[in-house]
Amino acid sequence: MSILFDNAHLLQQDGTAIPSVVAVEGTAIRYAGPKSGLTLRMRKTIDCKGGIIMPGLVNAHTHLGMTLFRGFCNHLPLEEWLQKVWALEDLLTEDDVYWATMLSIMEMTAAGATCFLDMYFHMEGVARAVADSGMRGVLSRGLQSLGAPGNRVQEARALYADWHGAGGRITTMVGPHSVYTCDEDMLKQSIALADEMDVGLHIHLCESRQEVADCQKAYSCSPIELCEKLGLFERPVVIGHGVELTEADMDILAQHPVTVAHCPGSNLKLGNGIAPVAALQQRGINVALGTDSAASNNNLNVWEEMHLASLLQKYTARDAGALPAAQALEMATFNSYQALNIDGGLSEGNVADLVLVRTDKPVFMPGLDAAADLVYAAGCGDVAITMVAGRIVYDHGQWPTIDIEEVSRNIERIAARLFP
Ligand code: NI
């Protein structure tokens, strides 16, 4: 299928949007630029009516299976929250995780996301949902020392063997959960596993003060220092959160191929504070955006994270110039593409992961600054079309690849069992 997005404005990396067309053929962008330069003939034409086409957003830290727990326990600190959630997780089946992931993908694609980085269990269910829905996903099996850690490592191996590279839309990473759930041996095993598969790692680090204090008590160093000592940062790593970082921690991170997945919504709601994004970026450390789970956030809307990230840095620095809108957009797109090895962005040859935003709405008028309009005035409700790998997965309130009724029927059935 070849599709021409006609009469659009293309969002540039500097935050401006210029009149353009985008031609998509198969899974890739064949042309993006002024209509006068288009020589291809496309089978289908979509009139964008002057709307903005932007690169697909990436949710760089998720636990999609937990969307089943949305609204289950609010107003609790991380440690108490974890205890409640872990008890419920024991009841989950792969089928539950499949349907939770389908539901999550509906929510994310409607909000302009085209890819996510997940850490959970029953990852076969997550992978099947990604395959069935047409979404793009980077999947990591969460690893911990408790219980039967060997089984989890086996599952991580199987996830890689069965799904890494599948359909050109799924890749895998190794996911040691954290320094408080993985002992040194498990962290070392995780690094060895990532070496063996030649993939990156995905881990929670420095999410709360308690985590850092416990690590200091157990190891006499910070979580970042512990991971560096073990060699974890020798491979590409995505760190979920990175709230409680010292200057020394950030100096360590700056020397390694590390991305911090900033999760402002979850951090605020769990009362964990605000990550030092400006200080990270000053050191050249890559910062992406994630929602964390719908059990803590309580949504999977990366758009909201862009808005929060920008405002929070202005607030902490008492500086209106901190984290401008175009930079927030870059964090949700290109910074994640870099972290997750995706040829994203609206230029020829890149994967056709894109979002059409309707601009015939009050929030886009008078239309003086595209990036500022998108981040501060608009919201995910202004997304008209989301395309992943050349396929439309969300279209004006409809999900062409997903049976909505089947998803809601199954969510209702599972919720009735989990919350009798
Ligand atoms: Ni998390």
Detail the topology: elements first, then pairings.
Blueprint: E1 2-11, E2 17-25, E3 28-33, E4 44-47, E5 52-55, E6 57-62, H1 78-89, H2 94-110, E7 113-120, H3 123-133, E8 136-143, H4 149-163, E9 170-176, H5 184-197, E10 201-205, H6 209-219, H7 223-230, E11 237-241, H8 247-253, E12 258-262, H9 264-269, H10 277-282, E13 286-289, H11 302-317, H12 325-332, H13 334-340, E14 354-357, H14 370-377, E15 383-388, E16 391-395, H15 404-418
Helix pairs in contact: 2-3, 2-15, 4-5, 11-12, 12-14
Bound molecules: nickel (II) ion (NI).
Can I get a quick summary?
By secondary structure, the protein is an alpha/beta fold.
Shape: globular
- What are the distinct ligands in this entry? nickel (II) ion
- The amount of helix comes to 25-40%
Number of helices: 15
Rg (CA only): 21 Å
What does the largest sheet look like?
Answer: 8 strands, mixed
* Distance N to C terminus: 46 Å
**Which consecutive residue ranges, at least 5 long each, have pLDDT under 50?**
none
What's the total count of β strands?
16
The averaged pLDDT comes out at: 96
> Structural class, from secondary structure content?
alpha/beta
Hey, roughly how much beta strand do the residues contain? 15-25%
Structure description:
By secondary structure, this protein is α/β, with parallel strands linked by helices. It has 15 helices and 16 strands. It has helices spanning 78-89, 94-110, 123-133, 149-163, 184-197, 209-219, 223-230, 247-253, 264-269, 277-282, 302-317, 325-332, 334-340, 370-377, 404-418, and strands at 2-11, 17-25, 28-33, 44-47, 52-55, 57-62, 113-120, 136-143, 170-176, 201-205, 237-241, 258-262, 286-289, 354-357, 383-388, 391-395. Strands 1, 2, 3, 4, 5, 14, 15 and 16 form an eight-stranded mixed sheet that branches. It has a four-stranded parallel sheet with strand order 6-7-8-9, with helices on both faces. Helix 11 (302-317) packs across helix 12. The longest helix is centred in the first third of the chain and has 17 residues, at 94-110. It is globular and about 65 Å long. It starts with a strand and ends with a helix. Nickel (II) ion binds next to loops.
